[in-house]
Amino acid sequence: MRVVLWLSKALRVDDNPVLALAFKNSTEIVPVVCVDPREVNNQKISVNRADFFLRTLAELQGLLAARNLDLQVLVGHPEDVIPNLIKETGSTSLYCDLDMDQELLVRQHEALKRVADMKVSVHVSECSCLTDHRALLAKHAANWNPMTFEGFVEAIELADILPPSIPPTRISGRVELGKKRDFPTLSSLGFSEQPSYTWILPGHKAAETALDRLCSQSSLESFNKGSSTPVIFSDCASTSMLSPYISHGVLSVRRVFAEVASTLNINGEKRWAKERSNSSSFLSQLLWREFFYFIGRRTANFGKIQGNAICRKIPWRLSSPISGETDKAAETQLSAWESGTTGFPWIDAFMRQMKTEGWVHHIGRHACSSFLTRGQLYISWEKGFQIFQKHFLDYDYYLNAGNWLWISSSAFSSAFFRVYSPTRMPKLYSGAADFVLHFLPMLNKIDLRNLFEPWKDARFEECGYNSPVVEEDIALQNISNLRRIWPELSVQQRGSESVLPGGVQLNSDGTLVLRSGQNLDGFDDPAFEQWKTMLSDARNMLSVAESSIAKVMEEGTLPASGACAQKASSNETITFTASDVLYCKAVDRFEQAYDAIRKSKKFDQYQKMASFWRFQVNWGECIMGRAGWLIASASTLDALSDQGAGSDEIEEMASGCLGCFSPDGEKELKNQGAEQRRAVAKKLLLHAREKLQWVIDQASSDDGLSEAIYNEASEYLADIYLQLSKLTSDDGDIANTVGFLIKARKVFFSLLEATGSSAKYRGSSREGDLLAVA
After folding, report:
1. Stated pTM of the model
2. Any known ligand binding at 7?
3. Is 395 assigned to a binding site?
4. Does 333 belong to an annotated binding site?
5. Is 189 part of a structural domain of the chain?
6. What would the mean pLDDT of 620-637 be, rounded to a whole number?
């Protein structure tokens, strides 16, 4: 059996569960890494990060070749690249490791869904964490709330740590692809500069060397995070230097833990309890990583301020819309911070080290983070998050977000009054002067006693070094501001109950079952949440347009027609009326939502769902038609996806725009007596019944109609008959009947598009029914 192996974060052979699973269940494997140009470009990441990534892939290609595997490194959007590769190779299954990055998971989800729609089985393995987070939640009480590191580590037993998997030993059958793809280069990806990092070598050999160095008995026994020094600028760093290899997936965190634990002879819970309580030990650093992963995976928008339930909404500068419009002074200061030109040598040296080497000691990162946020600049930590993401070779979504939340006192810490001094802190470290002068050689003329406050030196003007962008003592003002507003900065002290990003759940064997035509089970789709917001905005705009029409009709005045009216008049089929003019002007506002939808990741899917409805509206119903199109799209998505908008929400939206489904029917219902209303409703219900029955009859002969959709349609048909029977009694509820009719229409459009039957419907004798009734 031939399969595609999509490697995302597990760029290794050792302890690679998804690789082992692919070897176990197949005879031929096509490994692939997708280089997404939306992520690997000179705006999003530095040339250092890009080079480290590409050189890591080149070495991985050689390691896999030793197992007769030809790694394909393809540039493109994974939601296109992966399905195309499966078609090209004729593979019957896809194996991949779950991308834990919240920013990338949506794209991976889209790629997996498209593959599942091809009737290809999808198997997903989670390879990034030390523990099974679902098992931890199941083991502890339902109200377990580990929002502190101490509370989290106390609950982690040695038995909770997952062991590394055994690497495959057999050789795969080699799959020969047709045209040889060129391996991507820096220039082909748009990078014109040359990398500048020198002492953190990429690849698996360098990672093994670093791990061996750490696991020497003397290194581990002497390891103490608290006593390590930040003033290192060569390959003799006082920390493990494993972070770039773990973040790229070159080294597995489970394997690192296992080898360190073995070296330290941690073989029982008593010994483990002592080790985990030592906050300066190496294994504690791995637990900090696990802590941020655990909280981050249960918190939507973990790397942002807005929509982040555990983040205090501090009114930072450059954090609009929380604090209003931004200011040019803050933009200038942010630029100086990134470029290492703030005028504070301690901060500038670290920032220049980041840009040059792609790495900074954790104390240096904390100093720079504090300076940007609650220390001197009071600028949003989101800006710092993006800059660290661009430059650090060891960038990790959850660690980056967790540390920024912590250092800025936005979460995890309430010690907002403890600020790193950029002038006094460096005096605590021997060698700080050499470190600063290495990255800021223009300060050689400054007396060493003034090195960290060079503006006080008589020769400062000769140096060509920047004056401070801010007064250091402004930190006192920032602390005062935070103390004043602190009581108001309440936060939710836990994330959601989802145990994997987006709520994705895995089976016990690591597989993820996808049903054709559906989203991932339990997947909370951020794109769909955005879609629902647009839909709500559209409904509000419709209400504004209707109010404007009523006002114009009452006052007897008309506004200037404008560009939309001119556009409308170019259509020969338009009968131009007062209402039409206002409808056209209202379309201007709808276009904003439409454009946003058109540019969204899922526009093609939505457009396909709604195309039949969209092209059946006439100009007199233009604004209604656009709203109807939006509602029909959301309705269809609801039928296609378990995670679509709830039926009550959809019905409410549809009720608010009843006219877009049947304006004539609505008028008849309002203008007639009870008996006439029942007659009209009965006619509409009969049409709905015929439409539903027609779709079921047509689709029953096809393989495309799923059992779930068929059952839903059958239930609606049964309810229609029940509603019709109620209409014959004196106590028939017209309001409920009309509400149900909206739901029936929703299912009709859902079924029509979900089964691909719209073309058949257009060609049938029932085509006129849609315009006559809906």
Report:
1. 0.66
2. no
3. yes
4. no
5. no
6. 34
